[in-house]
Write a structure and sequence with these properties.
Blueprint lengths: L1 H17 L10 H24 L7 H23 L3 H24 L8 H24 L12 H25 L5 H24 L14
Helix pairs in contact: 1-2, 1-7, 2-3, 3-4, 3-5, 4-5, 5-6, 6-7
Length: 221
């Protein structure tokens, strides 16, 4: 219970830090709105988890719907909102639609919502990781943000935080799924790493959009 509350507290902090940006001039309005929705979703979900876990209420269906599927789709939408290539935007839209269709088929014919959809989450994580890699490659090969100070660009840091979180979770869930005899201590270490990276990701979403205010030349979205 204490761990859940402590973890939820960090998400709430990221959410609260994000609120003042609605009242400030911000060149990343759409991206900020999407990250705010993600933070609100994460806080609501973990608050629900804090209530249900001590009472031994099965909450896996809620986590499947809102964490595995909805949060994945929101993060893909975030990337689609700032990718410059029309082809990349279209691919993300198609991937999102296919992921949603896969989720419906998986739920109806393979595994119900009361069992965690590990394969779906691994698939979603893999798509998000590919988006992060495309973003990093584009910075160096396509000269994205070449006229800006990259360390002050919120999209760079948010993508970095997302990449760290989803690579750790992809490793965690893939290990549990495919290596059944994995050492328990290693699983616990991977679980701690996953939770730590999620804190960095949510706090990063709450803080990153303040970075442009550190320079007089605010980057364009």
């Amino acid at each position: 219970m204490e761990i859940l509350n402590w973890y939820t507290g960090f998400i709430l902090l990221g959410l609260l830090l994000s609120v003042p940006l609605f009242f400030l001039k911000n060149s990343f309005k759409k991206q900020h709105l999407i990250t705010f929705i993600i933070l609100l979703l994460a806080f609501s979900l973990e608050s629900y988890g804090s209530y249900t876990v001590p009472r031994k209420i099965n909450n896996i269906d809620v986590y499947n719907i809102f964490f595995v599927y909805l949060e994945t789709l929101l993060i893909l939408w975030l990337f689609e909102s700032f990718f410059e290539s029309k082809k990349a935007k279209l691919l993300i839209k198609i991937a999102s639609l296919l992921f949603l269709v896969w989720g419906v088929i998986y739920t109806l014919f393979i595994e119900d919502l009361y069992t965690f959809h590990t394969y779906s989450f691994s698939l979603g994580s893999f798509m998000i990781i590919l988006c992060c890699i495309y973003f990093f490659i584009s910075i160096f090969l396509k000269d994205w943000f070449i006229d800006e100070k990259l360390p002050l660009n919120p999209l760079f840091w948010i993508t970095t935080c997302i990449f760290l979180f989803y690579t750790s979770t992809f490793l965690y869930f893939s290990s549990i799924t495919f290596v059944t005899d994995l050492d328990r201590n290693l699983i616990l270490i991977l679980g701690s790493l996953k939770r730590t990276m999620s804190i960095f990701m949510y706090l990063g979403m709450g803080l990153a959009f303040y970075l442009p205010f550190l320079t007089k030349n605010t980057p364009k979205a």
